[in-house]
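Why run this: before we spend reagent on co-expression, it is cheaper to look at a predicted model of the complex and decide which construct boundaries make sense. The entries below are exactly what would go into the expression plan.
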Amino acid sequence: MMEWLPWRRRRRRWRWRRRGGIGRRSWTMMMRRRRTGRRRMTMVMRRRRRRRMMMTTCLWTMWRLRRSSLLLATMTMTTTTTTTAATAINQPTAMLISIADDLAADLTALLPSLSSDFMTQFCQVAVDHVTKGSLSSSRYAQVAKSVDGEVAQVKTALAALSSLFIQCAKRNVGEADVRKALEELEGMEKHAAQVAECYGRQKARLRAVLAGEFAMRLPHYVDLDWRIDVEVGSRALRNQVKPTMMLNLKTTEKDTLLQADYAVAKHVCDELEQAMKQANTAHSRRIIKYIR
Amino acid sequence: PTPNQRPMELSRSNLSSLTRLATLKASSFSSIVAAACEAASFGSSQATESLVEKCAGEDAADVKTAFAGAAAVVLEAAKHDAAGDEIRAVLDECKLSEEQAGELVKAFEQRKKAIRAALGRTHSFNKDVPSVVGIDWRLDYYIKSHNLEQVKTPVYFITLKTQTADGSVADVRFTCNYQELQDLHAKLRDSVKQVDRLLS
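The model came back. Tokens follow.
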């Protein structure tokens, strides 16, 4: 191979190869290309070269990023998106919220004057106000007495705080964003952390209430009881085997009694299997991934 | 048939009707036997209605009596799932010739399955309970509602089509999420497996 080079260059080339310069295969390819004398690169050759370059670059970048935590974060993100469609992605996104003027006025009317113990109690009462509806007048009076304020003022402040909790829970706002928004209101700086902490603790419960009691009531599946009866004989016909299934379908609205025979039950089973498979198709995953 | 089961029983009037059947002509005999099998399987009543016209030479009362006897023996044989020998034994008692008995047994064997299916359908204690005839499903992705944003859960809408004994169709609708659908599917598959085990 190297006989055609002069002595000094031959030695240099040999040392360079020994040190592991260009790989042997590529050396052979280069020599072959030189020998064939092809000047122009064909489309196929260009594509192959491009593909190899892309592959090697990606691998190199991956290796570089492996050291940094960014790849660890991207790896966890990819694992969450590749889980089945059954898991809901309910990560609270960071958002900048600003409280409307009238709501801010209602909040700052009474709340800044409360001490931190009363503030915790007040937050709890506000959460009860959301979950159980309007409270009894004696409860209002009790809160007003412990806070040393008027009943009307207490009612307005409670309504304002409940409204804040509802709106934040509806939009799935994070605790930190609530605290930042409250800190901007004058007089609420010392209570912002407390209110935000109460909101963070009760957020799941608030969302459950909004999803359950105040949402559209569609009949939701609860349970299915089944029973197999085999008709062995009757007055008109002896020696028969006729299996029937009695089903008690329980939903949130009512219990329905149904019967089905073997063929229909099998068909229903197959259709439900098809329905379950549909949730894990690429199309469903794409929708879940791209709709934010 | 198990030893505890009572054998085929025909009343005295049915037996006398069968002896009357034996005395008829061959063509009338065939048409009466065919009509009896047709009537027993709850098929169209055309054969029965035109029976008297077909058996032109015979007395109408004789034809009707013979038809009643033939229908009774066919129904009783279907009820007990009787073999050919048992039926021949009964028919021999009523003095039917071998050819006539053979013809009746052959016609009966052809229609036996249909007759038994028809008899199985005659009564049902669960007339009020609707039976499931079909299922429709739909998969949605619940994004937000007026009360709650950022929901993002897949939800299934299932519709079970039901039919009552008098033919009226109704729908049973409900929603469920993926886990509940898995639960429902597991329960149904369980019951289907039990029936499979029973039938095998």
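Chain B is about 55% helix and 15% strand. The first helix of chain B runs from residue 12 to 22. Bring this page to Monday's planning discussion.
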